[in-house]
């Protein structure tokens, strides 16, 4: 799938070269270099960027002994180094993991998650996130997200480049058609590839997490609880608070936050899709359905293959 994304970037480079009568190999080479540089940037910056975008605060064992102790227990079971532990002060129950490798990882939970789940369910969620760490899914998805964003950005620029090149005498009339097609189709192709990667890694993390703790039912129960959270009621509460002059910028889920758009860019990171029920965004979900994930976990328990 990463090869497909790189090929999309190279195709965009070839189209730009054709529109401006450059050597086509220059465009291919430039986009290949850009792809490599963006992947390298994602590799070294994914952890700090994720913590910052989601308003996560790294905490000590003294501050949150239950969460910290659970992460340490699961890290031992998963045979990975103890990651940093973070918390997001939001009543929306959710969790995510970040970091380019197991030695540079962080596992983050929201305040709502700690308040909602019992100890076994919390272990199931943390095991899922630890599976992402062990499987290096954070790096995979950070690179995929960066490449998809790059493809979307460049394909959007192509339409403007084609318009500015339209006055040339040697302009090819098919150039605008090709630019328009790239502008529409390439971002969709990049998004579908990214969604395919994200969903496959979620299935894998569910299975790996269940095997780490030897209890698929714990994660299945936690997912059902997360899915039962009334997001519309929470958002209406935040809207009402904003009408009375109150706005909490520390909560990434709040629709009235000055950085509420960050949750869209980070949706693939959370164990439960934070865009569920948000208009058109939920149609292109980064996660498989909760029902399907629970069914797979229960089948694991039934077969005893964990």
Protein architecture, described:
By secondary structure, the protein is an alpha+beta fold. It is 64% helix and 6% strand. It is built from 11 helices and 4 strands, in the order ααβαβββαααααααα. The chain has helices at residues 2-19, 24-53, 65-78, 111-116, 119-134, 137-164, 174-213, 216-227, 231-243, 262-265, 290-303; strands at residues 57-59, 84-88, 95-99, 105-110. Strands 1-2-4-3 form a 4-stranded mixed β-sheet, sandwiched between helices. A hairpin with a 5-residue loop joins strand 3 (95-99) and strand 4. Helix 7 (174-213) runs parallel beside helix 11. It is globular, with a radius of gyration of 22 Å. The two termini are 28 Å apart. The model is unreliable at 279-283 (pLDDT under 50).
């Amino acid at each position: 799938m990463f090869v497909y994304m790189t090929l999309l970037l190279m195709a965009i480079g070839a189209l730009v070269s054709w529109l401006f009568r450059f050597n086509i190999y220059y465009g291919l080479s430039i986009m290949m270099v850009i792809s490599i540089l963006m992947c390298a940037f994602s590799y070294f910056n994914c952890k700090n960027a994720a913590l910052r975008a989601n308003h996560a605060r790294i905490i000590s064992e003294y501050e949150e002994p239950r969460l910290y102790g659970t992460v340490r227990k699961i890290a031992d079971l998963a045979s990975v180094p103890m990651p940093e532990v973070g918390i997001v002060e939001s009543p929306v129950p959710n969790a995510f993991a970040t970091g380019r490798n197991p030695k540079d990882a962080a596992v983050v939970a929201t305040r709502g998650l700690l308040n909602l789940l019992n100890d076994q369910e919390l272990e199931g969620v943390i095991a899922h996130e630890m599976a992402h760490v062990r499987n290096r899914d954070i790096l995979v998805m950070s690179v995929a997200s960066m490449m998809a964003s790059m493809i979307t950005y460049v394909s959007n620029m192509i339409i403007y480049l084609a318009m500015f090149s339209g006055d040339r005498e040697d302009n090819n009339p098919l150039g605008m058609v090709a630019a328009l097609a790239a502008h529409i189709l390439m971002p969709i192709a990049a998004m579908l590839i990214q969604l395919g990667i994200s969903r496959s890694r979620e299935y894998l993390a569910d299975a790996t997490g269940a095997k780490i703790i030897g209890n698929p039912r714990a994660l299945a129960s936690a997912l059902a609880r997360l899915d039962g959270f009334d997001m519309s009621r929470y958002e209406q509460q935040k809207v009402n608070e904003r009408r009375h002059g109150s706005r909490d910028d520390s909560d990434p889920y709040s629709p009235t936050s000055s950085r509420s758009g960050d949750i869209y860019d980070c949706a693939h990171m959370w164990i439960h899709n934070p865009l569920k029920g948000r208009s058109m965004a939920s149609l292109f979900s980064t996660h498989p359905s909760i029902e399907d994930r629970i069914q797979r976990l229960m089948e694991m328990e039934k077969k005893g293959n964990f």
